[in-house]
């Protein structure tokens, strides 16, 4: 039986791909913008609802480049330590309220230094907010574990600096590294020195690949850069042929990704907005799930997509008829793929995820 939305919300969920600067509450953007004098596109008298609608409509263009432009107005209000800490705290509170029990939240420290913060101070401000949010969630009876992923922008030249920052903060709240930004014209191999450094340091990293650009981006991320996970990876479907009789043939790259169990951080709502998929029902996640790739479900940018983990999973239930066992499979996939030590991953799977789904399935 298909689960209800209430059951999906109650289910323990694991989130690997969520951008801090893409998940602000509209009301928070308004308040912070007024405090710092940042001009918003909706005018000074707009309310939170109107601003939330603007973000969703501006992001719903079918273009990744246009989608990324909306971040000017979230990053713009996240330039002081108190603002960053507030956003980080609210992020954790919102995820915990949605039933997320483990999350890796990413952001680019280099985008938050316009008013004089150092990179180290940015990371510290985020961690302070995460700590506050975790404490609040625990007090509310919705415990959550949250880790940072530090992102370098692929069109800039600070990836080595951010990689060193991620290693310096390892064990203090930072779980790994990422690169993000427009893919076309900015291949991951431009940052090969950073990835080689991270590998020497035994550090984890994911790479945005296979979202707006095709198979070459995925191939470089894996075979040249050594990515542990693929951010989105939706275009791996380009290497899969479904014949008229239903027979499926995998190309060499798709076979490699599946055989090596390389996790795909799939973000259905966002992929539809940016044109990486035509609709949820036509999203390659259905085929990739049927072929048992290491598929995970994620939100990407909760503000721009007006989404949550409950929304994402409910949409998949409606599109593909998934049941609670399928949602449990996505969740365990994600927890297995998390940048946490093995024993900590296992504790969450055996102590939280499996019992949580068992209660819903049996009761």
UniProtKB/TrEMBL annotation:
InterPro entries: A_deaminase, A_deaminase_dom, Ado/ade_deaminase, Metal_Hydrolase
Sites where the protein binds substrate: 19, 21, 181
Cofactor note: Binds 1 zinc ion per subunit.
Residues holding Zn(2+): 17, 19, 208, 300
Reactions catalysed according to its record: adenosine + H2O + H(+) = inosine + NH4(+); 2'-deoxyadenosine + H2O + H(+) = 2'-deoxyinosine + NH4(+)
Protein's UniProt keywords contain RNA-binding: no
Key words, A-Z: Hydrolase, Metal-binding, Nucleotide metabolism, Zinc
Annotated site residue numbers, Important for catalytic activity: 232
Domain Adenosine deaminase stretches: 12-354
Essential cofactor(s): Zn(2+)
Positions annotated as active site in the UniProt record: 211
EC numbers, comma separated: 3.5.4.4
Family indicated by similarity: Belongs to the metallo-dependent hydrolases superfamily. Adenosine and AMP deaminases family. Adenosine deaminase subfamily.
Purpose of the protein: Catalyzes the hydrolytic deamination of adenosine and 2-deoxyadenosine.
Protein name per the record: Adenosine deaminase
Organism of provenance: Nocardioides marinquilinus
Gene this protein is translated from: add
């Amino acid at each position: 039986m298909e689960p209800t939305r209430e059951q999906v919300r109650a289910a323990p969920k694991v989130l690997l791909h969520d951008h801090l600067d893409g998940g602000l509450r509209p009301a928070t953007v308004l308040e912070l913008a007024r405090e710092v004098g940042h001009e918003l596109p909706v005018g000074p008298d707009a309310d939170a609802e109107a601003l939330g609608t603007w973000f969703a409509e501006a992001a719903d263009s079918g273009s990744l480049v246009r989608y990324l432009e909306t971040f000017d107005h979230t990053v713009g209000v996240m330039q002081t330590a108190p603002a960053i800490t507030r956003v980080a705290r609210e992020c954790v509170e919102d995820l915990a309220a949605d039933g997320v029990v483990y999350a890796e939240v990413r952001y680019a420290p280099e985008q938050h230094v316009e008013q004089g913060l150092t990179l180290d101070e940015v990371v510290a401000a985020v961690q302070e907010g995460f700590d506050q949010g975790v404490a609040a969630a625990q007090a509310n009876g919705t415990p959550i574990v949250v880790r940072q992923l530090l992102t370098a922008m692929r069109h800039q030249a600070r990836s080595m600096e951010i990689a060193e920052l991620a290693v310096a903060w390892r064990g203090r709240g930072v779980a790994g590294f990422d690169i993000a930004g427009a893919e076309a014209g900015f291949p991951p191999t431009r940052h090969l020195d950073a990835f080689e450094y991270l590998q020497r340091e035994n550090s984890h990293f994911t790479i945005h690949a296979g979202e707006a650009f095709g198979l070459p981006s995925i191939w470089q991320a894996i075979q040249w850069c050594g990515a542990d996970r693929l951010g989105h990876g939706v275009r791996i479907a380009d290497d899969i042929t479904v014949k008229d009789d239903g027979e499926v043939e995998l190309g060499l790259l798709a076979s490699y990704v599946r055989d090596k169990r390389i996790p795909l951080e799939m973000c259905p709502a966002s992929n539809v907005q940016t044109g990486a998929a035509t609709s949820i029902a036509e999203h390659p996640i259905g085929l990739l799930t049927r072929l048992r790739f290491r598929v995970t479900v994620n939100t990407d940018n909760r503000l721009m997509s007006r989404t949550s983990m409950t929304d994402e999973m409910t949409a998949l239930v409606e599109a593909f008829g998934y049941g609670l066992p399928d949602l449990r499979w996505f969740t365990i996939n994600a927890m297995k793929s998390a940048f946490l030590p093995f024993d900590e991953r296992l504790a969450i799977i055996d102590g939280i995820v499996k019992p949580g789904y068992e209660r819903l399935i049996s009761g």
